[in-house]
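Changelog-linked ticket: NAP example.
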Amino acid sequence: MGSATRILFHCAGDDDARMQDAVAAALGPEHPLAVWPDVGDPATIRYAVAWHPPDDFFDGLIALEAVFALAAGVDQLLRHPGLPAHVPLVRLDDAGMGNKMAEYVLHGVLHAHRGWPDLLAAARQERWLHDLDVTPAGRFRVGILGAGTLATAVARRLVANGYPVSCWSRGVRALPDGIDSVAGTAALDALLPRCRVLVCLLPLTPATRGILDTALLSALPRGAFLVNVARGEHLVEADLLALLDADHLSGAMLDVFAEEPLPERHPFWRHPKVLVSPHVSAPSGPEDSAAQVADSLRVVEAGGRPDGLVDRARGY
Ligand SMILES: NC(=O)c1ccc[n+]([C@@H]2O[C@H](COP(=O)([O-])OP(=O)(O)OC[C@H]3O[C@@H](n4cnc5c(N)ncnc54)[C@H](OP(=O)(O)O)[C@@H]3O)[C@@H](O)[C@H]2O)c1
């Protein structure tokens, strides 16, 4: 056997020890991990497996051939000051997150559909809200910003529960049966007034940062509900708060925030129409993530193109 391929690992997640063990096991002894900051000779590192690496992580990695992100969204890595421009970047593509995301979003859609924003408000006043109108699921359209891996998993689950679903993307996509695909600004303008729930599952790029603003959210019908599970920077927080307080939106389920952890005394914590979760809608599980990283690394080693290869110019 020739000399082993050295791989530099860094993970700043809550599960970093489990992730490290899972990645080491999936890669096997022929791919020994150097765990940052114990880099050894940086010139012998060929691959990096990383999440939230520090600014000097890529220093001296002159033989680096590819970077594998331990996440589906790579906005943070693309902003990294040391990420070499020529090195392929590979993200997680589903890796077990699709089902988790589908469950989380289904919960949000059911919450909105079955009137829980109003029921909770009534309960706080000990008011018996018996005459609640229930729209049939088939007339309760959900719009999803994004038509990628996670949006498709979410849309499938919602369609299976009887909801009409439209996914918006840059180009029209061939989506599974029952899921409507729309693309472009005019189509989004036409879609928004028809959506009772809007779900954001876009990558964070210069084109999508701040997309959930007054202009977009006020185009939703009165009483609509927002689910943001993509990135906090998609949302203009003050715009959402104003539309909630003006009763234009009935509520929001937010899993991601511009600042995480959500700071103490942030208005979202106690807002009666906001459901807050701490970025847990679809955590990347160590075993699924490690298995996909190992598969992708072997595809790259064999000269192939792995699933999840990021288009650096496009930003996702
Ligand atoms: N909260 C969590 O726990 C969690 C977990 C995992 C991921 N996420 C977030 O979810 C995001 C989506 O993940 P994914 O795996 O589904 O990504 P993906 O497969 O790359 O899908 C991205 C989708 O967004 C669309 N898109 C990108 N830029 C657009 C624009 N300017 N206008 C319209 N559509 C645009 C793409 O359109 P095209 O189809 O036309 O290319 C594609 O359909 C990640 O980037 C991450 O931020 C959050």
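Closing comment: Example verified and attached. The mean pLDDT is 96. Residues 3 and 151 are 42 Å apart (CA to CA).
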